[in-house]
Amino acid sequence: MTDSPFHANASDFTDEDLAIYRDSIARFLDEHASAERNEKWRRDKVVERSVWHDAGRFGMLGASVPAQYGGLGGDFRHERIIIEEFGKRGLEGWGVPLHNMIVAPYIAAFGTEAQKAQWLPRVASGETILAIAMSEPGTGSDLQGIRTHARREGDDYIINGQKTFISNGQTADLILVVCKTDKEAGSRGISLIAVEGERAGFRRGRNLDKMGREAQDTSELFFEDVRVPADNLLGGIEGKGFAQLMTMLPQERLGIAAMGLAIMERAIALAVDYARDRTAFGKTLMDFQNTQFVLAEAKTKAVIARSFIDSCVDKLLVGTLDATTASMAKLWITETELETVSRCLQLFGGYGYMNEYPISQLYRDARIDTIHGGTSEIMKLLIARSL
């Protein structure tokens, strides 16, 4: 990684740099994440560790981790390229965007110098896979309602609680656990504490059976008197967790919107190819006006979505992307994604219902995007506060 041509400040990257990076990511994925290998990951419900190590050696992990800690030294544009190249290949189940774009930035932005030096080089190399544990069996979007708690005892914290729907849950080596360090302080009593996967009392539950993104290991996690050093408190100050989450959620929601767009664009490409090849009543499907209208509307919405994301990325890079705008991006793009994938699948007729057709898998993979990272209903509430 030290010889990477991409090590620079964000403002130093040119379009040519980004084009070279996209080409290199595409070549890596074509070699290491073929359709056959992806199908195996879906069957196994997990991506094997060796591929994470390959990605780390290549330089795909830690794309926005500062170069001084072993990362690429890039920014959200590099993460977006990874998301888009994953989307073209139906790789939504491999949790690299979560590792790279959602969890690593917490450490880079809020970690102490010692925490960054200890954790980030291994994050970039693939030796440490990341997860973040927010949701609980009785608490989803209402983070202030979490029950997982950490009690200070000397130089340690003792953590008890349960989490669910945790992506990378079976493979994660370091998990940022959202917990209460002061049960009486409301949002000011929430902290993020890193838990290593080998800690006594930490247990992984089921690899949950989902309707889509089968390759993504999504798990229940249990914490029973898990003792971790106080040095694992992210940032070193109790009660900062809620503010840290609120700071990072706009980027997470923009990332989910980018994933939604990638799925939308792939669905359109699949439908166009099918419509050009499939014949009915002596004509191709593309010759029918209905098909043309469906795809013209889908393309128009995809172009609008891309323009919206471009604008949000520009704001994010200069630090002006606010929660309301990010919520609007996630709301409109993911809802449009579901509508578009459904209409594209309809063009396939009965074949669209068959699992052997990628559009069928895409339909299932897309469904989570209006739920994770904050449901569409939560996005509407956040947007309404700005009225």
Describe the structure in your own words.
Strand 2 and strand 3 (156-167) form a beta hairpin. This protein has three domains: 10-128, Acyl-CoA dehydrogenase/oxidase, N-terminal domain (Butyryl-Coa Dehydrogenase, subunit A, domain 1, Orthogonal Bundle), CATH 1.10.540.10; 132-238, Butyryl-CoA Dehydrogenase, subunit A, domain 2, CATH 2.40.110; 243-384, Butyryl-CoA Dehydrogenase, subunit A, domain 3, CATH 1.20.140. The strands form three sheets. Strands 2-3-7-6 form a four-stranded antiparallel beta sheet, with no helix packed on it. Helix 4 (76-88) packs antiparallel against helix 5, helix 7 runs parallel beside helix 9 and helix 9 runs antiparallel to helix 10 (358-366). The protein is globular, with a radius of gyration of 21 Å. It is built from eleven helices and nine strands. 49% of the residues lie in helices and 15% in strands. With 387 residues, it is of the alpha+beta class. The chain has helices spanning 15-32, 35-44, 49-58, 76-88, 96-110, 113-125, 241-277, 289-317, 323-347, 358-366, 376-384, and strands at 130-133, 149-153, 156-167, 174-180, 190-196, 202-207, 218-229, 279-280, 283-284. Residues 1-11 have low confidence and may be disordered.
Q: In short, what is this structure?
A:
The chain is an alpha+beta fold and 387 residues long. The chain folds into three domains: 10-128, Acyl-CoA dehydrogenase/oxidase, N-terminal domain (Butyryl-Coa Dehydrogenase, subunit A, domain 1, Orthogonal Bundle); 132-238, Butyryl-CoA Dehydrogenase, subunit A, domain 2 (Beta Barrel), CATH 2.40.110; 243-384, Up-down Bundle (Butyryl-CoA Dehydrogenase, subunit A, domain 3).
